[in-house]
Amino acid sequence: SLELHLDSLRSMLAVCFGWVSPASPLGCGAADGAPWLRAPPATVALMVATQPQERGVAAGRKAVLGSSRQRARSKHQLITLFLRAQSAQQRGSTSLARSLLQRCLRLDSADAHAALALAQLEAAAGYPERARELFLSARAASPANLKLAHAHAVFEARCGRPAAARAAFGACEAIAPGAHYTAHALGQLEESLGRTEAARAAYAHCSDSPTVLAAWAALEARHANVSQARSLYRAACAAAA
């Protein structure tokens, strides 16, 4: 009969969805799932409809937790490799340090610390093109990283590429307007190129920094502007007080 078929369906669903255990004598008591056996078809349909959703939510929570743990493990591994690379570099083991930093970037290609360290390592080892490529790719991945942009600017200045250095210093200014180390480094670059007015303009852009004011005063002293140099030195002392 139809009722027997419904009873069989209820029994199978109760076992499949865990409402009772497979060994339970269905129908022997409320705790063993008898309510589901007596439930009307509409109630059974509702349980079937909501059960996968509930399981899906639980599975989603489990996936998020697993993903969080995986990220934590990767971060720990990244830090360990980075510290080992620093130690290797301090011991003069350039090849090992390079290998460890490359492993860091394989774990996280956007890690600015590893990219900066590897770029500086390549520059110190005499591979400016490798260093430049690393700086550019790292800055593309972390465009708001001031330390990375500043290091790139200084690198280009040391390589005798003032236009590239100015562009990188410009990025620094966009990230952190009025940063004294940007103004100081750019002023020093312009001075080294004999561009006195450009150096003055760079120093004037951050005239509340003792370091910048002292550099500006030294510039004026070299050009025999004694009165202005004294004034700037006094301002530097006042700013440092």
TrEMBL record:
A GO biological-process term: mRNA processing
Q: Which GO terms describe its molecular function?
A: mRNA binding; single-stranded RNA binding
The lineage's top-level taxon is: Eukaryota
InterPro entries, alphabetized: Mbb1-like, TPR-like_helical_dom_sf
Under the heading PANTHER family, the entry gives: PROTEIN HIGH CHLOROPHYLL FLUORESCENT 107
What's the protein name?
Uncharacterized protein
Species for this entry: Emiliania huxleyi
Source lineage: Eukaryota, Haptista, Haptophyta, Prymnesiophyceae, Isochrysidales
